[in-house]
Amino acid sequence: MNADNPNFSAAGRHDWTRDEVQALFDLPFNDLLFEAHGVHRKHFAPNQVQVSTLCSIKTGACPEDCAYCPQSVRYDTGLEKEDLLAVEEVVAQARAAKERGATRFCMGAAYRSPKQKQLQVICEMVREVKALGMETCATLGMLNADHATQLRDAGLDYYNHNLDTSPEYYGEIITTRTYQDRLDTLEQVRNAGMKVCCGGIIGMGEAAADRVGLLLALANLRVHPESVPINQLVQVPGTPLFGSETLDPLDFVRTIAVTRILMPQSHVRLSAGRSEMSDETQALAFFAGANSIFYGERLLTTDNPDLDHDQHLFAKLGIDAEPAADSEDLADSPTPGATDRAGADVRS
Ligand code: SAM
Ligand code: DTB
Ligand code: SF4
Questions:
Q1: Annotated catalytic residue: which of 13, 177, 182, 197?
Q2: Is 62 noted as a catalytic residue in this protein?
Q3: CATH number corresponding to 16-332
């Protein structure tokens, strides 16, 4: 196999078979990374990584039973629940994130699905964050068509809603909503004209075949998600998945590489789990095609690497923060790594 093989470079394939995806996972590590990196270079600037910052706008007391999640009301994780934040508080956090170099602000809420009153407040947050010149993203649970339209009209660029795992393993992880419910929400987001951010979690005790099943489900969606977060399970005491067998870092990197090959034009996000990863694993993940991260000391409720660490990592690897898609004024923002590389300005 080589990088000129149309199976690897075709942007628009949506007919991947299980055997083909399994065959990619089965490649010798070097062959897989070589192919994935070749695909990555064809579609993206190889040393640019998109930078998003997360904000938990409503924390804890979620009625759902997702076995990985510290925010479910069903598990005692010691998390303090918080009501929906005030619009001004969220906008202040977005402004701070922009000053630190994030180009996208992602607002997450521990809802099964938002109620109309909550959605109105969230739409105001979206309008004001957008007015700062940032890309906007939200993850609020299931959406109906009306919700999706309101969010789009408020200026929401991306909606994050993950498939989480394979259809086959899904029932072991969540019982309070179905795989089809998730696909329906993704369809509402698409129909409203927003960009889709959709991926999953690995390290939840799934079999290798379930990683194949997850990526197959994502790659065979009608349109590939523009953003594909690959999360490594953050193990939180009190959740049912606490104590799961830890993932081999090379299996994480393999999953990134296969994602890059299957969805060549999507941003692949090296998402939750970076606090537990070595710099070397992250460097391999970037080589394998990851080109987006969450930047900032918190994910939603758990830790993420601190800013200095990430600036240093970008500098060591010669990685620049990707400018926002359609915002010129972001060129005036500092970017992670900007100050660290022997005086080089990463935006030049
Ligand atoms: N409540 C909404 C929902 O689930 O649709 C949105 C917020 S929820 C926290 C967003 C995503 O975060 C989940 O779908 C899951 O993929 C990810 N996530 C939650 N807890 C995690 C953990 N402990 N480790 C890794 N990813 C996690
Ligand atoms: C995604 O795929 N990962 C992010 C974001 N989308 C919302 C969330 C990760 C959450 C990790 C656990 C926590 O901090 O609560
Ligand atoms: Fe609730 Fe989302 Fe956590 Fe599931 S992942 S328990 S829906 S906050």
A1: 197
A2: yes
A3: 3.20.20.70
